[in-house]
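Researcher: Structure for this, please.
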Amino acid sequence: MLTAGTAALVTALGLVSPPVAAAESGGSPDAFSANTVRQIEALQSIKKSQHAGESKVDSRLLVEQKLRAQRMPASAVPALGSGANVSAAGTVLVDIRGQVSEELLKGLRESGAGIRAVSERYGSVRAEVPLNAVPAIAARADVKKVETANEAFTARQLAEPATAGKRESKEEKGARIADELKKAVEAKGQAGIAAGPINSEGDRAHNADTARRQFGVTGVGTKICALSDGIDSLATSQARGELPAGVDVIPGQEGEGDEGTAMLEIIHDLAPNAALGFASAFNSDASFADNIRKLRFDAGCDVIVDDVLYFKESPFQDWIIAQAVNDVTADGALYFSSAGNEGNVTDGTSGHWEGDFVDSGKSVGKFAGAAHNFAGAAGNQIFQPLSNASGRVPVTLFWSDPLGASNNDYDLYLLNAAGNVVDFSQDVQTGTQDAYERVDTTGVAGLRLAIVKFSGEGRYLSLSALRGRFSDSADGLKAYTSPGVTVGHSAARDAFSVAAAPAAKAFPRALEPGDPANPAGPFPGAFDATTKVERFTSDGPRRMFYQADGTPITPGNVSGTGGEVRAKPDITAADGVSTSVTGFTTFYGTSAAAPHAAAIAGLVLSGNPGLPPADVREALINTAVDILAPGRDNSSGAGVILADKVLAYTGASPQPLASASQPTVTPADGGSALDPGDTAKVTLPVTNRGDGTATSTSVVLSSPTPGVTVAPRSKSYGTISPGQTGVNDFTINVPATQEPGVPVVLNARVTFAGSYSPTTSTFSLPVGTPSPVSRDFAYAGEAVAIPDSDPTGVTVPIAVSGVGRASKLTFSVDGATCDADQTSTTVGINHSYAGDLVGTLTSPSGAKATVFQRSGGSGNNLCQVVFADNATTAFSSVNAANAPFSGTYKPAQALGGLAAGSADGTWKFTAVDVAGGDTGSIRAISLHINGFVQSGVAERPAGVGKSVGRGPVKPV
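Model: Predicted structure, token format:
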């Protein structure tokens, strides 16, 4: 979970602030004290005097700079904390919005910035920059805004409140995960050691277990993908049998943490034969949006689920993350998202208020602006009090102007009981900025918020203390709350916003002191009409004023009577369930609920291939068991979903899924290779990986390669039971004119009685006798540093010539002498914590293959490693104990696909470090390529052995 911790700025500067006891009283509920006015005036004076470049800088960054430069006395705001989060090295993590280009990235690096995430589509760069470099960056014409990095958290609810104690270090975490993986591998097949799969109680509570048996559907034919923080323990869950092999992870987007692993376990429990995928949502807000699109358009995910909220997501217009959700749902994907754990009005757990701005008539000193009156017609109160337990939570303010076009300027102030400004946000809005401000609470009792309209017109406001609570204060302030804290992409029109209800044990602690007991779930029974939602689950509805492109929904009316009201959340699903993942053995929060709902949707698609998204929505909504108030309500939506009811509604049935696998080729002349002019037998297996029996199965085998004939064109495979394989033989004739190295392409079209019919597969059969000579091509340059935690990485070239088409390709990380010293100059890649690295090989044609992907944990250095498709051990299996990493391994993705076309040209190897704190360099890497025997040319096999110096390691 990512949150904003704030330290007192005066402490960081070594200054002493005046004691709180000496401050004036905070004043009456309907007026600022003189003390408060003086402090707000001091902050507003900066806003009034800033020049055009400074107006592009986050107001908290700007004030931080001025305080550090002593252009504003710290005594003017004695209780002010720093919202800038400046590191000990003087850097800040920022989001730079503007025109992304190589020129901008180059300029940022020259300013001392470290690049953390880049999105050209959404015009955003996340970077760690020196605080003193911020003005020059903001002054660039291609930069629109420099913001304090937009933070996020997942919708996991901690069974024990987070403490400020020592966090597990990167090295400690790596050692723990390596030990867990080792134990999981050792436990395989040993009776009495392996405890067996841990199953989510939600499987039972949602009747998913009985639904699978009743309808015979298991998720076959669907791909369900998750976005969360990370999947650190993916390999451990796979070794334990909790997750299958082959989880499709977007390279470089593995993330940090294990909430993603826990979500995938839940999905697999309910839809065990669905394919799975993952990408991190935590690199930046724009990276999150990019990854949503990648999961659909690159990875082909049918159902996508996430559990993340970025604090800047607008409640009134679909921002970039919601726009990405809109893109994938328009393409036919189903999207599920956690409703959030921000509380609800019904249970008295809300820290949310929204409504029209009401002028209190109270101006703020000598500057323009008036305070908002929270009491409205009931009186005059310019403060919103926070509960004493609402420490260290983000508070957001939005108003009903379109994104990037706000010309009404509102500011937000956080005050203590003595009237001192504790935090503030007063960005400039002059027509090109977002309608957004944010502060962060401290652990001090008696905090209250004030909204000031600095300039412009009255607008509809949304004020949210995320995971906090508005509560009557000891000095007489009344708390005002409204339903509707569910915001952001989970409120997108076609997304499913998922609330949480306990499946089994009650959430084990009071959310705040004095709260009533939390509800328990029905396990081992199923959800029914008596089900209660978690007291922390976020409520709706969500009022929207603008279409995603900024077009007003109700032109001229952006008040509480305008816009569109979206009924959110949509449905309720289980939380408080078991997983095998450390830290998530009991998984609470809407983070756990959303993957249950996504998995049930996967079962629906598995039993109803091609069912339109609108029909899936209808089934989920219409069969939900009504809970809480009769009909749809703000906390549970349509109610809690049950898998058996949904599948009965759609009429699901087990589906066969027959497809062709790699054929075996046997030349008629008895040779070992398929040569020009050969006739050969092609043995083609067809496997039914579905839930139902494939009947009337047949294959049409054809070739688009000129001159190649296939006989017969089609064959019957009859009936193939689930899990079984049928085999038939075909004959192909290769023309004598076929050029060696140019493959014969076969297309296999499998038809059968079922909704997934037909399936098509394409196979390339190499033609020609592979050369026994392996030619070596090495990177010839000097060592190149791999930038730390930079998604752009570093790329080195390998020139290849005189090979033509390749029959075999291997890649090696070389070195003369192997050791685990992270500063070693004799290894191929020296890098501490090799598990930070992703290596990618790109052919001259532009084809890419991931060679290694976040493997090796905390181990150092790759040296004399050969990556070969025919290796028996995958590099993904290595751990820190194997360092330095040497030997022959299977790459993360097959290298054979890079051999299409001529191998001659410039190959590129890219190394990306995706996590901070560890560094290293590329020193010695090589390609080893076999061509094809050319007629009349004698070839002699190359010798085999390890390299010396910086030369290549030659494959066996």
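Researcher: Any notable elements?
Model: Residues 170-187 form the longest helix (18 residues). The longest strand covers residues 790-800.
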